[in-house]
């Protein structure tokens, strides 16, 4: 099974990351749309509570947004 990152091309991934680093909310929305279901599924498999899983998933994306200015993309191998 391909990871979600493998399902998009390098240029699209780099564009979303670069845009998000620059504060582009639409680029971050793209990252959210690509990753949120998979992250939620993983969290739910551990927590087994829908509300808590949604809260944790939201917290992950808030922290990701806050950390993006310092993020250095090192290619898809980092994923």
Average pLDDT, to the nearest integer?
90
Instruction: Report the sheet with the most strands, covering strand number, pairing sense and barrel closure.
Output: none
Distance between the termini: 15 Å
Q: What is the C-alpha radius of gyration, as a whole number of Å?
A: 13 Å
| Uncertain residue ranges | none
Overview of this structure, please?
The protein contains three helices and no strands. The chain is mostly helical and 79 residues long. α1 crosses α2 and α2 runs antiparallel to α3.
Task: Explain the layout of strands and helices.
Blueprint: H1 10-21, H2 25-47, H3 50-67
Helix pairs in contact: 1-2, 2-3
What's a concise summary of this model?
The protein contains three helices and no strands. It is mainly alpha-helical. Helix 1 crosses helix 2 and helix 2 runs antiparallel to helix 3.
Key descriptive features of the protein:
79 residues; mainly alpha; 3 helices; 67% helix; 0% strand
